[in-house]
Fold RING-type domain-containing protein.
Amino acid sequence: MRRQQKEERRRVEQERRRLEEERRLLEEERRLLREEQRLFNENRKQQDPIQITETKECSKCLKDLNVKNFSNITYQCGHDVYICRKCIGEHIAHAVNKGSIKILCLENNCHEVLNESDVRKFSNNEIFERHIYDKFCIIGNSYF
Ligand SMILES: [Zn+2]
Ligand SMILES: [Zn+2]
């Protein structure tokens, strides 16, 4: 009877050790999987350079440009911007040169009116001052 108990205890102890070893191996495997996943992600990052995700084609000049070259045309615009800052600047300059004081967003179907700070954002001093001057003259001549 005592021998049997002893035998039994030894068996349990063996089993416990086996389970412990198994758990250790599982943990090791999990660690390796995580490491593999990390290397995989790193590799993928290297394969598609950031450039690809950070450029956009301007729908006007058709140039592939860094997303930094795009910004909301007016404060109220809720749409995505597909026209680069330079093209918007040209659109504004063209409108100002025509003597127009009401400059509209040129993205498809938007037609929001650009306010002064929108015009400022895309124009050089000369264009901006002319815009302000034209606006002042027209309002000064009791246009409203
Ligand atoms: Zn453009
Ligand atoms: Zn717009």
